[in-house]
């Protein structure tokens, strides 16, 4: 049987010498590249930001502006979900954790056990939008109807006055802060003791963009995501707590709290931020940084509030 | 000792060392997985882990039943095998014996290109095109289902199966073929009754390698199968696989938490499954050789 042929390895000295020379020259170039002009009076360093997919685009915009103003600070932004950010803050793998939910008691305990002292900063406000396909005639729901959709009690849109199309519920993965928020506010209706779960038929998608894709292709799909992901490819629903007045997820309704699924977005750092991290946090809270959040579809803060755990 | 002997000795021991290192790695990976996986069973019963029907890792109290994930993996893999094995072996037979020489080269390089498509690209194609297409064709509630994953995985395993099977077919001694023709066999009889059985061991090895790739593949299934942790009734329903669970949740677990250990236990289950498959492949190879 001839699965793999092992070629005879012949190393010619001249060839390896050539390779060696090339490597030396290349590494000289690399060293030369590092040797740019460094101004010791300017702040320098590296900031690792990880966490919520909801705000990752806004973080990216802020960090790009920030790196223009402070060229010697390098900011690395990664998404993955609030849980990912918080876990890496606890594991000391990032400097700032972006989160679309509060840290849980369990997480704070775990952090303190590892010598990490989480410090909470509210950076913007967001509404969790519920989106359906553009061809779905339903355009408003009460929170209770929404809950019945996601726990699998309502399985066809005609029960809500829509077409005769089976409901497909879409959720984010369990690492998502929006998942945790939605579970708490909609599935549990804010009741901490509730044991209700998402219907096991709910699809768990790994990004908000995947939810947009599926909803725009599927007339029976319903999903939730941060307001920043609303586009004309899908239809956001107006929601109501009581069934009297319905509010669409727009900036004004989030600001005055009438939209039922409004929430703050957080940065978490280990202890009060200092050095370049403080510089970045202040930048994000400044007018310039807040404009980036606004451009990404979030509600900027009128007053900068920072509170401690 | 002559210089030639010395260099021979050095090369020989280097090769021996590489072999030993691989064995060491496998053992270390197993021990590492085993250590963290067993930590779960301090507070969680192995029976509830293996036969639990609910995977609810962040609920209070959490439930780590991997039955839906296990069945999800089996469905997707079985679907992929049913699609890719007949197609792959037939394609290998065509390339090895039937195709004209010029076409043969084109086909072989195309298959190599197919092998080099990154899985995330296939996943993307699955989300925007294959999923909606299957949904409309079969009238499904959603295109994010096991079949979408199976089709894409079959696509990924095909190059492995084709190239190894083709290799095995080409290396069947010419005399076998000539003898078959000499006895008056048609081309099809020769291929089916002579070539295929004599190349069986190589073809089985190719299939097993393909299956190994399918079971371990993560990105594609995470993107297109919907990841609903429910025991699927058919392959046309959304499902969640073992690999997608680890990839989707590993990032958010704090090392040392119960959820973290549960994911390691899932990894161990996966490791044992692939081990068994490899063992079966080995045994069947041995038998085919005899």
Walk me through what this model shows:
The complex is a heterodimer of chains A (309) and B (290). Chain A has ten helices and twelve strands. Chain A is α/β, with parallel strands linked by helices. In chain A, strands 1, 2, 3, 4, 6, 7, 8, 9, 11 and 12 form a ten-stranded mixed beta sheet that branches. Chain A has a two-stranded parallel sheet with strand order 5-10. In chain A, helix 2 packs antiparallel against helix 10 and helix 3 runs parallel beside helix 4. Chain A starts with 12 loop residues before the first helix and ends with a strand. The N terminus and C terminus of chain A are likely disordered. Chain B is mainly α. Chain B contains twelve helices and two strands. Chain B has a two-stranded antiparallel ribbon with strand order 1-2. In chain B, strand 1 and strand 2 form a beta hairpin. In chain B, helix 7 runs antiparallel to helix 8 and helix 11 runs antiparallel to helix 12. Classes of the chains: A alpha/beta (309), B mainly alpha (290). Chains A and B meet through helix 3, strand 7 and helix 7 of A and helix 5, helix 6 and helix 9 of B.
